[in-house]
Write a structure and sequence with these properties.
- The protein has 414 residues and is mainly alpha-helical.
- The chain has three domains: 125 residues, no CATH class; 217 residues, no CATH class; 65 residues, no CATH class.
- Helices cover 41% and strands 8% of the residues.
- Helix 1 crosses helix 4, helix 6 crosses helix 7 and helix 7 packs across helix 12.
- The longest helix is centred in the middle third of the chain and has 23 residues.
Length: 414
């Protein structure tokens, strides 16, 4: 909504917010304003939010009617999680206070609570963290109460994906208002759902999470369009595997295998290779990819699938106000202090000897601890180190012409 230059206090900002809200809700009988929550410890969203904020100073500001914010930009105000929590509560209270006598129905969230100027909606009190899922909770409830037309306003792709997944339970005339300024447009969900079909619509949440969302990350070098094009060409078993993500806390091994096959096809369209480990070797041997652009090893992919299953499970419970979820630490995350971090893999990507490979490029005699080989109590190896002939740390007679003994081979492999 921005912060105009005439805004001097938080009260001015709240009035501006209310004006923007009234402009966007013209022609609607009932308006729902849904905020994210910022008071949940060990949040999956916390890492993403911190990355977005960067290293900027995160000052706390007083949020009240008289608080002076004339010289504070909106970005500075939102750079602190506590500010966000206090500001959302302040704006929600402002809506209820100043639209108390309005003929239009206003509904807003205040952390876990849901309040209205006219309705009692205690059943919409929710433990959900993100507005993305909570908006669908409100839309589904409005449909059940007989709404004939619903417009969801959000710039977030996650909301569009969830709305299409929920579409069969929403009123037929459900649309989304997306974009800003001259790029703002209304999208009717019905034609998109019909074009996708029920099976692909069911697969959308799992696909969107696994191919890259805030909590799961992307496949290096693979855009969302590339991922979608691969899904479009995939067979029914792969589509069903995406649709099964989030249905249960534990994903079936057959679904893991189908998703692994999908990843192989993402890297080499039309391939018959179904193992990511084999695909890594195939691409590496063809010198087609640098290491970071190879597909993940199987153990890494399994952790990514576990995280995708967990996030999709949260999304698919968007119609439930309060739900009990298993701890994320058993689904691909680990707790480090008060932060949740992804588990990259449960096995080493290469043998320990390779990971600890040391070689030197000394220009002298390798007689001091400057030599990385000597520093690690290792001998320089002719075939790997680029040190000079004068090296005093070299292995002598590693391999001589005509000598192919097993002992020599063992030395070379060490």
């Amino acid at each position: 909504m921005g912060k105009p230059t005439w805004v001097k206090t938080c009260y001015d900002l709240a009035n501006h917010f209310l004006h923007v809200l009234d402009c966007k809700s013209q022609g609607f009988h009932e308006v729902h304003v849904v905020f994210d929550r910022y008071d949940i410890p060990n949040s999956l969203k916390e890492r993403t939010r911190n990355l977005r904020l960067g290293d900027h100073r995160r000052l706390a500001y007083n949020i009240s009617d008289e608080a002076i914010i004339e010289k504070v930009t909106l970005k500075q105000l939102l750079n602190n999680q506590d500010n966000k929590q206090r500001l959302t509560l302040y704006l929600a209270s402002h809506i209820l206070k100043h639209r108390k006598e309005s003929e239009k129905i206003y509904v807003t969230t205040l952390s876990e609570e849901c309040k209205s100027n006219k309705l009692i909606l205690d059943h919409l009190n929710s433990t959900q963290e993100e507005a993305d899922t909570r908006m669908l909770l409100h839309a589904l409830d409005a449909s059940q109460r007989g709404a004939t037309s619903i417009c969801i306003q959000s710039p977030d792709t996650d909301v569009l994906v969830l709305a299409l997944w929920c579409y069969k339970d929403l009123c037929p005339a459900t649309s989304m208002l997306v974009g800003t300024g001259g790029l703002r447009r209304t999208i009717d969900l019905g034609p998109i759902y019909d074009a996708l079909g029920s099976q692909k619509a069911s697969a959308l949440p799992g696909f969107h999470v696994l191919s890259g969302c805030d909590q799961t990350g992307t496949f290096c070098g693979k855009s969302k369009i590339s991922c979608w094009n691969t899904l479009q060409k995939a067979d029914g078993d792969i589509v069903r595997a995406f649709g099964n993500l989030g249905n249960t806390p534990s994903i079936q091994e057959d679904d893991v295998s189908e998703l692994e096959r999908y990843v192989c096809q993402l890297y080499v369209p039309g391939t018959t290779i179904s193992s990511v480990n084999e695909m890594r070797w195939f691409l590496f041997s063809k010198h087609q990819y640098t290491d970071e652009k190879l597909p993940p090893i199987k153990a890494t992919l399994v952790q990514k699938i576990n995280r995708a299953n967990y996030v999709t499970m949260i999304w698919k419970q968007c119609g439930t106000a309060s739900s009990t979820l298993p701890p994320p630490t058993s689904h691909g995350w680990r707790l480090e202090g008060d932060r949740l971090l992804p588990v990259p893999t449960t096995v080493l990507p290469a043998p320990q000897a390779v990971l600890q490979l040391v070689k030197c490029g000394c220009k002298g005699s390798c007689s001091t601890m400057i030599c990385s080989c000597r520093k690690h109590n290792l001998k320089c190896i002719t075939d790997m180190c680029t040190c000079e002939v004068a090296c005093e740390n070299r292995i002598v007679n590693i391999h001589t012409a005509g000598d192919d003994s097993d002992d020599d081979d063992d030395v070379l492999e060490t």
